[in-house]
Amino acid sequence: MALLDVKNISKLYSNGTVKALDNVSLTVEKGEWVAIMGPSGSGKSTMLNIISCMDKPSLGEVVLDGVDISKESSRNLTNIRRDKIGLVFQQFHLVNYLTALENVMVSQYYHSMPDEKEALQALELVGLGARAKHLPHQLSGGEQQRVCIARALINHPQIILADEPTGNLDEANENLVIEIFKKLHSEGKTIIVVTHAPEVAQFAERTIVLEHGKFAREIKNNS
């Protein structure tokens, strides 16, 4: 059974006159790495928001790990997001007065109990063990993004969702982040990356292209 099955979803705004998504379907198997691309306004961020339980489709179904999240209450969606999903954002969303280690432990706190040793291991996984006590403003953009990845991984999610994870990074840091995703994929993690960059999407097993809120095409990648 697929880990994620998106069935004919639409997202309507302005009394149904604007369609951010229009009858889009997508299936993602466990352990698969999928990229979602498209121009600005194509619906890719809306799709990610729905998959991540931060929004609901107006029509259609979204089944994540056997649960139809399109029918769940807001409270249940919060719990599903906490327990099953690891989120990586373009804007990092780190707490500026907490250290890198504490930012990772915050995610643990909302899930179960903070565990400093485990949080430090997550930072070491992304090459930041030596920077654990640094505040966000003492870290480079690439280091902050790696803290975000450690935070996303700490609760052992079923699926990792990344929204333009290299959008604010220079080429060197972009490559570092891609290498982390490649390692996670090799370990069997399920990953969906929304990106505008073909050089990022090429590392996924396949790329889904959206245009004007609709499924446009699928590209099989050779990486």
Question: How would you concisely characterize the structure shown here?
Answer:
With 223 residues, the protein is of the alpha/beta class.
Q: Which key features would you list for this structure?
A:
single chain; 223 residues; alpha/beta; four-stranded antiparallel β-sheet; 27% strand
Protein model, in words:
This protein is 33% helix and 27% strand. By secondary structure, the chain is an alpha/beta fold.
Report the structural category.
alpha/beta
What general form does the structure show?
A: globular
Widest sheet: strand ordering: 6-7-8-3-9-10
Helix count, DSSP H or I runs of 4 or more residues: 7
Which strand-content bin applies to the residues? Answer: 25-35%
Average residue-wise pLDDT: 91
Helix content: 25-40%
* Number of E-state strands: 10
Unreliable stretches (pLDDT < 50, length at least 5) are none
State the separation between the terminal residues, measured CA to CA. 25 Å
Provide the succession of SSEs: EEEHEEHEHHHEHEHEE
Radius of gyration: 17 Å
Biggest sheet features: 6 strands, mixed
Q: Which helices and strands appear, and what pairs or packs with what?
A:
Elements (H helix, E strand, L loop, with lengths): L3 E10 L4 E11 L4 E5 L6 H8 L7 E6 L2 E2 L5 H11 E4 L11 H12 L4 H10 L15 H13 L5 E5 L7 H16 L4 E4 L3 H4 L4 E6 L2 E7 L3
Parallel strand pairs: 3-8, 3-9, 6-7, 7-8
Antiparallel strand pairs: 1-2, 1-4, 4-5, 9-10
Helix pairs in contact: 3-4, 3-5, 4-5, 5-6
